[in-house]
Design brief:
With 264 residues, the chain is α/β, with parallel strands linked by helices. Helix content is 55%, strand content 14%. It has 2 domains: 2-156, NAD(P)-binding Rossmann-like Domain (Rossmann fold, 3-Layer(aba) Sandwich); 160-245. The longest helix is centred in the middle third of the chain and has 29 residues, at 158-186.
Length: 264
């Protein structure tokens, strides 16, 4: 299959390696030309200087920051001819939904996909991906199965997805950064306990993101900020309960709903 990957960052690179390994022919484009050329050399693809160099008929993977996704989809839709399909993997779907619907009205198969795994993933069996607000569900599912065989596909509405993302990604990265700041300033040598291992994994994930991640809409939107401030309020409330020695009732309630805290 001939595919065009727009965006050669972490996830664009993951898709390039994964899809090249499946025997697909790849074209690669990134505003950072060196990134596209380096990835093309690695996977045996062709680096493009401009999107206009690619003809229609190919499948397209859009793996750019949320702030750039809308513009890329608009450019793809303005090109003459047609694409075999377009898959966009932005972590938030609200900002791109209007462009996706516009392309669908033109008869294109456009998949709003959110891989719920990171760029170090090697085995797709059981790896979860969110299929957000499908247009033609059967055709879009076929595309997902072609690109990500063995993945566990979760169908979810746009609003539910974006609300969940603000807690599942924005809040967890906020916690990881806050923990990193606290530990770096305290200069205390921590112990390798199980809970510390979990916390340090959050720190590792938060620090592995490029600076651009923290400038993009997911981390800076009012809705994400609201979730972060709610977390801080719960922390203050928890401090009060600990000080009063009255945490028992809260612990019992949380243990009763523990299995429901993760929805999928």
């Amino acid at each position: 299959m001939e595919l065009l990957i727009v965006g050669c960052g972490k996830m664009g690179g993951w898709f390039a390696r994964h899809l090249a390994g499946m025997g697909n022919s790849l074209e690669l484009y990134d505003v950072n030309r060196q990134a596209a050329e380096g990835l093309a050399t690695e996977v045996g693809g062709k680096a493009l200087k401009d999107l206009s160099e690619s003809s229609g008929g190919k499948g397209v993977i859009v793996a750019v920051p949320i702030s750039a996704s809308k513009g890329v989809l608009r450019e793809l839709g303005s090109r003459p001819g047609d694409w075999r399909f377009v898959v966009e993997i932005a972590a938030l779907k609200g900002p791109v939904a209007a462009e996706v619907r516009r392309l669908r009205r033109k008869g294109m198969t456009v998949v709003m996909l959110h891989p719920l795994f990171g760029p170090t993933t090697r085995n797709l069996m059981g790896a979860k991906v969110a299929h957000v607000e499908p247009g033609d569900e059967e055709r879009e599912r076929t595309v997902i199965e072609q690109l990500l065989p063995g993945a566990d596909v979760i169908r979810i509405g746009l609003r539910e997805h974006d609300a969940a993302v603000r807690y599942s990604i924005a809040l967890t990265h906020f916690i990881g950064l806050a923990a990193a700041l606290l530990l770096s300033r305290s200069r205390v040598r921590t112990l390798p306990t199980n809970s510390m291992g979990v916390l340090m994994r959050l720190v590792e994930i938060a620090l592995s993101e490029p600076e651009s991640f923290y400038r993009d809409e997911l981390m800076r939107s009012p809705s994400s900020e609201k979730a972060m401030r709610a977390f801080l309020r719960e922390g203050e409330r928890l401090l009060g309960l600990l000080g009063q020695g009255s945490l028992d009732r809260t612990l019992r309630r949380l243990r009763e709903v523990q299995d429901d805290l993760v929805g999928f």
